[in-house]
Amino acid sequence: MKILLTNFHYGRGGGHDTYVGVIARGLAVRHQVYVAAPATSRLYAHVSAMPGVHALPFEFPAKLKDVRRMVPAWRALRALLERERFDVVHVNGSPDHRLLMFAMMGMKGTRPRVVWTKHNSIAIKTDFLTRVRATRATDAVIAVSDSTATFVRDSVYGGKPVTVVKNGVDIDAFQPASAAETLAARAMLLGEAGAGQLVLGTVTGFDWYKGTMDMIAAVAALPREARDACTIVVVGTEPSEEQWREIDALGMREQVRVEGFVEDVKSYVRAFDVGFVVSYAIETVSFACREMMAMGKPVIVARYAGLPENIEDGVDGWIVPPHDPPALSGTLARILAQRGQLGAMSVRARAKAEREFSQQDFIDQTEQVYLQQLPTSSKSPPA
């Protein structure tokens, strides 16, 4: 197959970057794979270095202020489609999907089959252009969680085949650390004074919907002794000035370690006792949750969208009500009281990752969605 993957994000695209990059690298060994993304994006930099992947610098203007750039972008995409004659175009957001819709209008010859992945829990619109995109510029939908699939099937995309393909992670790269590696990571991050702390960590940053401020508020609400026993480590987007003021008002600055963006999160995750992804909007299944579990970290998740699909409550993690610091505080108190159970939960988190989070299964299932859209004569089996 000849496949074009698209992503509209400038700079960092979060889980989109991981998603497209994993598919591109995995399928390039047996198909012709192209990735179109802005030249300034993290994804473009990553795929440019991947053997066998063709990186195309491409922008997907979508806002009214960008209207002058839309027509040249549309023409460029139309020219690309007519020149390369892709079998499948896999779009990953509204801006790239919308531009593809316009580029295919009136296109001569056979158009590519279009696969769209719904990555988030944002409501799907019902306006005219969205309906056209669903009916005329989509052949199949990938949902990254069961909950996502449910609301896609109830939307204007309901007439299209919807396949659940949950995010896979590299369980060989994301391995549990040895006891010595864990101690070294904690000493590097927290110093000797942090050796006995309960380290609560996330790699999802401080974006408003991630719930990181809920975790800080939940720790702040614990009795003094329990509160002082906790350290929160946050990798990713740094706090806004307003969030720092809130952290200071809670008296939590000394217990919150902010590490910013890093390319490789594993050295930080090794230092965690417990991971957390307590988003209350936008989120779906979460690469971050699955990576931490693969490293043997039980994870606290919010009962929101696809997050609970990762966890068996009380077995390999905990499920808490979304955006509810008092409830989260209660869960933390139980974790502190039953800290001796973390070792067994760590083993079960890793076992689930090995059983259910296979990156190769994720790649193979995505490939099957592509193949199902092609005429029988065009289907080429894996090499």
From TrEMBL:
The UniProt record lists the keyword Transferase: yes
Keywords, sorted A to Z: Transferase
Protein's organism: Paraburkholderia acidisoli
Protein name: Glycosyltransferase
InterPro entries: Glyco_trans_4-like_N, Glycosyltransferase_grp1
Domain of life according to the entry: Bacteria
GO molecular function: hexosyltransferase activity
Classification via CDD domains: GT4_PimA-like
A Pfam family recorded for this sequence: Glyco_trans_1_4
Domain Glycosyltransferase subfamily 4-like N-terminal: 14-172
SUPFAM superfamilies: UDP-Glycosyltransferase/glycogen phosphorylase (SSF53756)
